[in-house]
Design a protein that fits this description.
Number of helices: 5
Distance between the termini: 25 Å
Number of domains: 1
Strand content: under 5%
Number of strands: 0
Helix content: over 70%
Structural class: mainly alpha
Shape: elongated
């Protein structure tokens, strides 16, 4: 049973991270958009991607939690759970930023979004480290 949970967790993680990596990249371009047509096209892309990635994130969190319930409590499992919670918060922050773009109330520069875009990369590195090396 555990291997099936792990299988689906990894599947959902891959799909979710595709969105977590690309959505903020769309935000970079939205912040740079020169014309209303370009802004509208990018906004539609962002809205569709957010709707696409949300179920994948929910699946990743569900299967990850089910896996953790079958493992003995260890420091690395707590760390991995913390990363999952932080990624869920990042996902919600992406929604808030999307709402700001929908209302044309963006307050951030394209440079800010370039930095924001790197957060999931470091979260993925940390999660992989914890899972592979189980340091605690």
């Amino acid at each position: 049973m555990y291997l099936w949970l792990k299988f689906f967790h990894i599947f959902f993680i891959i799909a979710w991270f595709a969105g977590l990596f690309y959505l903020p990249r769309i935000y970079v371009n939205l912040a740079l958009a020169q014309t209303p047509e370009e802004y509208s096209r990018l906004l539609i892309m962002a809205q569709k991607l957010y709707k696409f990635m949300t179920p994948w994130g929910i699946g990743a969190l569900i299967f990850g939690t089910l896996m953790l319930a079958q493992l003995p409590a260890a420091g690395w499992t707590h760390g991995k759970l913390t990363i999952g919670i932080l990624l869920a918060a990042y996902h919600i922050a992406c929604r808030q930023l999307l709402i700001a773009f929908e209302q044309q109330r963006n307050r951030h520069s394209h440079k800010w979004y370039r930095v924001f875009n790197e957060i999931p990369v470091f979260a993925l590195l940390a999660a992989l480290y914890l899972v592979l090396f189980k340091p605690f």
